[in-house]
Design a protein that fits this description.
Blueprint (H helix, E strand, L loop, with lengths): L3 E10 L2 E9 L2 E5 L2 E3 L6 H13 L3 E13 L6 H4 L3 E11 L18 E6 L8 E2 L3 H9 L7 E4 L2
Parallel strand pairs: 1-6, 3-8, 5-9
Antiparallel strand pairs: 1-2, 1-4, 2-3, 2-7, 5-6
Cofactor: Mg(2+)
Protein name: NUDIX hydrolase
Keywords: Hydrolase
């Protein structure tokens, strides 16, 4: 199976981060808005499209903050995604001023319940995937210098 590129948005506003809310047998969990890059599409084009589809937000895309690999066979969800090898490019984004209808967009993610703003100081209390990103976001907001490439993490 091929390696898949994915663009993700880290949208921070008033010390909160915008995430997609989902639910499984263990309760609620959260993921960053964004998704797979389509053939002929730049990462920025993919991210803008995904943010409209998933959280109804037009975004300005800033710097690349993190690159994460996810090799499914190496993590806790290997039973159903052992064939997955994805590279996620996580960009710092801002919602364009005047956007007030943040919520499910034109094509929500499978199983998406809605969009939610999580308080950054409390991120470690939420099941936000990748879970390793929670501390990275907290550290970024506090001004710490972080590596861009995070490796194969979940």
């Amino acid at each position: 199976m091929a390696v898949r590129n994915s663009a993700k948005a880290i949208i921070i506003q008033t010390n909160h981060i915008l995430v997609i809310k989902k639910q499984d047998t263990e309760g609620y969990y959260y993921i960053l808005p964004g998704g797979g890059q389509e053939h002929g599409e730049t990462l920025h084009e993919a991210l803008k499209r995904e943010c409209i589809e998933e959280v109804n937000a037009t975004v300005d895309i800033g710097n690349l903050l993190f690159i994460r690999e996810y090799i499914g066979k190496n993590h806790e969800h290997f039973a159903f995604d052992s064939e997955v090898h994805q590279i996620e490019y996580m960009f710092l984004c801002k919602v364009i001023e005047g956007a007030t209808n943040i919520g499910n967009g034109t094509a929500p993610d499978d199983g998406q319940i809605g969009a939610e703003w999580l308080p950054i100081p409390d991120l470690l209390n939420y099941r936000l995937y990748p879970q390793s990103i929670r501390q990275n976001v907290i550290d970024h907001v506090s001004g710490k210098e972080l590596p861009v490439y995070l490796g194969d993490i979940n």
